[in-house]
Amino acid sequence: MIAVSALSCILQDVLPEGLGHGVTAWLSGARKITMSTVALQSDIDTPCIAASGTLVNLVAAGILWLLLLRPQRYRPVTLYLLVLALARNLFTGTGYFLFSGVANFGNWRTIIEGLHPHWMWRVGLIVLGPASYYASMLLVMAKLRPFQGPDPRSMRWVCWTPYFTAGVLAALPLSSASLDCST
């Protein structure tokens, strides 16, 4: 369970930062790109680059949801990985709306920066965030049902293991990678 949890956590970091922000920055002409487990920095910053991380999370969640339409095709370990990856991508993608709206910081702040009236766009993010997050929780809860045994306490391991695994991974001292695209 810990290995599957760690893999889903790593995928959730690499998808929005590398595939989302990184590839979009590179395609946009960035010459210097630095990626860590929590952020990507490049020598250019556009709303398209900012939006791409969340959009990759949500597209990945859509693909995972489609794969999970027939859960009986998968062995329990594979099913658990798919459900955790779905949860992480949904929760990160939908939670970012609330975070950017409340804190007026982050990717979605960059996206709404020039839109007027700015306060209305922030309120829109603040409303969209919890509504989409709640819908995500309901979807993930339904996908976790195959793991519920006769004892309701069995779900504790299914849910707490990835939670604590993510906390341990977040605390590890990892370095960032830098890419020079000028050649």
Give a short synopsis of this structure:
This protein is mostly helical and 183 residues long. It is built from six helices and three strands. The protein has a three-stranded antiparallel beta sheet with strand order 2-1-3, with helices on one face.
| Amino- and carboxy-terminal Cα gap | 43 Å
Q: In the residues, how many domains can be counted? A: 1
- Shape annotation: globular
Number of strands: 3
Can you give the helix content as a percent range? Answer: 55-70%
**How many helical stretches?**
6
**Over all CA atoms, what is the radius of gyration?**
18 Å
Oligomeric description of these chains: single chain
Strand adjacency order, main sheet = 2-1-3
Low-confidence runs of at least 5 consecutive residues: none
Largest sheet: 3 strands, antiparallel
Order of helices and strands: HEEHHHHHE
Mean pLDDT: 92
- Estimate what percentage of residues fall within beta strands: 5-15%
Structural class: mainly alpha
Can you tell me about this structure?
The protein has 183 residues and is mostly helical. The chain has one domain. Helix content is 69%, strand content 6%. It is built from 6 helices and 3 strands; from the N terminus they run αββαααααβ. It has helices spanning 2-27, 47-67, 76-103, 107-112, 118-144, 154-171, and strands at 32-35, 40-42, 177-180. A 3-stranded antiparallel sheet has the order 2-1-3, with helices on one face. Strand 1 (32-35) and strand 2 form a beta hairpin. The longest helix has 28 residues, at 76-103. It is globular, with a radius of gyration of 18 Å. The protein starts with a helix and ends with a strand. The mean pLDDT is 92.
